[in-house]
Amino acid sequence: VDSSSEGPKKLLELCSVTLRTPLQAAGVPPRTLLMGVSLKLDPGESLLIAGESGIGKSSLVRAVAGLWRNGAGEIRRPSGLHTFFIAQRPYMCIGSLREQLLYPEAEEPDQNRDEALRAALREVGLEQLLQSPGLDAAQDDDSAPEDLNWWSRLSLGEMQRLSFARLLLRRE
């Protein structure tokens, strides 16, 4: 799939996009997820992508973001357009709440930045995480290991909201 950043006319344009699964094991051919999808999305328009599991919805979003190259066709979006998406199962590193919010970057504690971190958590309804374990609980202090393993600490929906807080912090 050719993903380019050209032309300010449309917000998004897909031209005959076909998506396939990556090559798996020897002798297992790729499976076609989507075939011949074309659309034009103007600024201000919305698009709902819905359907059964396994038909390529997430793969299409990844292709629009430039992260899925298995297939054919062309995806055009304006240059300078920042594309964000939240995965169904977001990546959660083992570490402090600060590390989760700033992932993949690392940053020293900063009073001004801390307020932005707190505000992002409030916006997504996760302000209770500021109480326990807090922004900077780390494995070398009194925190229990399960406080730093976000897969065991949070529900899938909470992990998605934490990922959305990451997105809010990067919109600046």
UniProtKB/TrEMBL annotation:
Domain (ABC transporter) ranges: 35-171
The keyword Membrane is assigned to this record: yes
GO molecular function, one term: ATP binding
Name used for this protein in its record: ABC transporter domain-containing protein
Family note: Belongs to the ABC transporter superfamily. ABCD family. Peroxisomal fatty acyl CoA transporter (TC 3.A.1.203) subfamily.
InterPro entries cross-referenced by the UniProt entry: ABC_transporter-like_ATP-bd, ABC_transporter_sub-D, P-loop_NTPase
Swiss-Prot/TrEMBL keywords: Membrane, Transmembrane, Transmembrane helix, Transport
